[in-house]
Amino acid sequence: MLADLEKTFSKIPVPVIMSDGAGFITYANDSLRTSFKYMPQDLIGKRYTDFLMPGIAEGKAMRYYIEIFGDDTNQPKEIDLVPFGETVPNSARIICHGDGYKRSLITVLQPQDSTLKPVFQER
Predict the structure, then answer these.
(1) Which domain holds residue 77?
(2) Which end of the chain is more exposed for a tag (fewer CB within 10 A), N or C?
């Protein structure tokens, strides 16, 4: 199922990042290259908090990550992140998928300079 998700995310024109329970990035789609000038493969194995929460103290960022990851309601949440050293917060939609050791946190970023309509809209 993870391979199917990654295949789907590779076609989405906004940055998508997946991470695991330990807080490491396991997947990033190619839209990171155009939106944030990062090569997706350069993020694999790196800490989520280092790239998506760099302005937050390390311990606090990891506690927040664990809180999000541990929320077993699997409901989407909208949060603001300041990824990759940007100066302006970016809106992101996050949701956890799966359970146990296969659980992943999926983050969909909306770049500030995007002319695209938001991927997720509240109804």
Answers:
(1) 24-110
(2) C
Task: Determine, yes or no, domain membership for 121.
Answer: no
Considering the domain boundaries, does residue 122 fall inside one? no
| pTM, rounded to two decimals | 0.82
Quick: pLDDT tens for 24-78. Answer: 999 999 998 888 888 999 999 999 999 998 888 889 999 999 988 888 888 899 9
39 in any annotated domain: yes
CATH of residue 34's domain is: 3.30.450
Per-residue pLDDT of 78-100, as tens digits, reads 998 888 878 888 889 999 988 88
> Rounded distance, CA 13 to CA 35, Å?
9
Number of domains in the chain: 1
